[in-house]
Amino acid sequence: MGKRILSTLILWSIVSAIVVFVGRDGAALLVALVSVAAQWELYVMLERIGLKPFRHLGVALGLLLMLGPYFAREWLGPDGKEGLESGIIAVLIVAVSLRVMRERTGAARMETLISTVFGIIYIPYMMFFFMRILWLGATETSGMMMAVWLVFAAKFCDVGALVWGSLFGRHKLAPSMSPKKTWEGAVGGVLSSALMCAGLVALYPHHYPTGFHWWVSALAAIPPAILSITSDLIESVIKRAADMKDSGRTIPGIGGAFDLIDSLILAVPVGYLILRLLV
Questions:
Q1: What is the DSSP letter of 22?
Q2: Taking a C-beta distance cutoff of 8 angstroms, is the pair 59, 40 a contact?
Q3: I want to staple 228 with a disulfide (CB 3.0 to 4.6 A). Which of 25, 91, 154, 238 is the partner?
Q4: CB of 275 within 8 A of CB of 136?
Q5: Contact 143, 155 (CB under 8 A)
């Protein structure tokens, strides 16, 4: 627990430093690098299950999917990247399919195609919505603060569930997937997420759009918080199938990059949609 707390404090310090000193481009690069690191760990787990994804090709295409549209907008303006994500997805499926036909035989072709494309879509594509959130708002800082809001919604649900579950947990949430998770912890995690998001907006109202009041922030945080629990359970299923406790050993007390962002993967696109409708 001590290592986890220390790692969490360091990670939040890094996030704060990026918001204050580095800017939107630095945040985008960090999200992309962490995402493809998590994608690599996912491929390793899929290999332990018995699949054979193209690790290097998949990660390269994932990085292209995340940074291509972002910097196209940076250089060409908002209209310069229209439809680029869907075009890149189509090209990456073609690229993987061509390599599958050349290097795989029989049933391995379908396994490699599905596992490689799944790795790209499940992590880089879903996390790409972070890039979209960075572009929301009237200023660069407001876009970054909305991204921070979403991190609050997902990660404080994780922290709150851990605390509430350890104190009051009695009823198992999903014993076959994650035996330690409880309904009490899940409810406490969602409430903690709403409270922290309300506090964030109340503390820095000038960084958020007009009308995004603290109570709106609290209510808007509930769907991504709930999905962060589901997202965490999905990683638990994959790790259990791969017979792994953690996806990696990069971060003391937490595990790997996949362990770090697991709760964000499903929460990010839904959080983007909510913010897009509100701001």
A1: I
A2: yes
A3: 154
A4: yes
A5: no
Element (H, E) at 181: strand 178-182
What's the token pair of residue 176?
A: 């076959």
With CA atoms as reference, report the closest residue to 39 among 269, 270, 256. 256
Residue 271 carries which side chain, given as an amino acid letter? G
pLDDT digits (tens, 9 = 90+) for 185-219: 999 999 999 999 999 999 999 999 888 999 999 99
Backbone angles phi, psi at 126, to 5 degrees: -65, -40
Q: Give the pLDDT mean for 111-127.
A: 96
Predicted confidence (pLDDT) at residue 100 exceeds the cutoff of 80: yes
Q: What's the half-sphere exposure (Cβ side, CA atoms, 13 Å) at 269?
A: 11
Does the pLDDT at position 21 exceed 90?
no
Decide if 41 contacts 72 (C-beta within 8 A).
no
Residue burial 1-18, b: 16+ Cβ < 10 Å; e: rest: eeeeeebbeeeeeebeeb
Task: State both tokens at 169.
Answer: 């947990």
